């Protein structure tokens, strides 16, 4: 089977959606591959063609958040960052994708399950950290590295700290206005995200 074909990609998406449904219904620990197959509407044999384990499914479901960044900004990795305005445009897109996707109902519900199960499910925290935060951090740091090379941001900036300084405010929206408000999530609008980006640029340029 050619797993890179359009049909295969559609099947992976079908299974991913089924896995998300299963995780939300039963939690991570309580979800079996049989349950995922049933939710996805595929045979267990088909499921194992695409995903070898529940851990692989978790990585794929969580990775969809970061993949969305690449889909919405396909040239992000190669986009020139030779001016303050270039940097603002890129960071605005990254920030908005982070906030809007991480604060969707399904992902907030999944994160709450992760938080509840992290203490009792070995490896769950590592999967989450390496699949979502670490990948967002890497993408932002790559953008800042290009901006520093072009003289757009201060030459003596510690890129790791500068990256964390950008990610941190975005995550406060997720945690304080999303996870901490299960009955009334307050997703910031794009203008609010842009205001955070502007404050950030005052600090690093």
UniProtKB/TrEMBL annotation:
Cytoplasm in keyword set: no
Entry's Gene Ontology molecular function annotations: DNA-binding transcription factor activity; transcription cis-regulatory region binding
InterPro entries per UniProt: Homeodomain-like_sf (IPR009057), HTH-type_TetR-like_transc_reg (IPR050109), HTH_TetR (IPR001647), Tet_transcr_reg_TetR-rel_C_sf (IPR036271), TetR_C_Proteobacteria (IPR039536)
Pfam families: TetR_C_7, TetR_N
GO BP terms in the entry: negative regulation of DNA-templated transcription
PROSITE patterns from the UniProt entry: HTH_TETR_2 (PS50977)
Positions of the HTH tetR-type domain: 9-69
Keywords carried by this UniProt record: DNA-binding, Transcription, Transcription regulation
Coiled-coil region list: none
SUPFAM superfamilies: Homeodomain-like, Tetracyclin repressor-like, C-terminal domain
Signal peptide (from-to): none
DNA-binding region as annotated in the record: 32-51
Name of protein: HTH tetR-type domain-containing protein
Organism whose genome encodes this protein: Phytohabitans rumicis
């Amino acid at each position: 089977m050619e797993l890179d074909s359009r049909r295969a990609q559609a099947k992976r998406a079908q299974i991913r959606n089924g896995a998300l449904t299963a995780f939300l219904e039963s939690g991570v620990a309580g979800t079996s591959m049989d349950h995922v197959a049933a939710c996805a509407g595929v045979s267990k044999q088909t499921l194992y063609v695409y995903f070898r384990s529940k851990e692989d499914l978790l990585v794929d479901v969580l990775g969809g958040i970061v993949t969305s960044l690449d889909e919405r900004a396909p040239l992000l990795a190669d986009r020139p960052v030779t001016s303050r305005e270039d940097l603002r445009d890129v960071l605005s897109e990254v920030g908005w994708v982070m906030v809007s996707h991480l604060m969707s109902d399904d992902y907030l519900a999944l994160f709450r399950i992760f938080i509840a199960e992290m203490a009792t499910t070995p490896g769950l925290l590592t999967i989450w950290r390496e699949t979502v935060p670490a990948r967002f951090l890497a993408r932002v740091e790559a953008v800042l590295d290009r901006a520093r090379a072009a003289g757009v941001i201060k030459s003596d900036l510690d890129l790791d700290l500068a990256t964390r300084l950008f990610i941190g405010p975005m995550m406060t929206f997720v945690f304080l206005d999303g996870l901490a408000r299960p009955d009334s999530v307050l997703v910031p609008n794009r203008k609010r995200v842009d205001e955070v980006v502007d404050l950030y640029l005052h600090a690093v340029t």
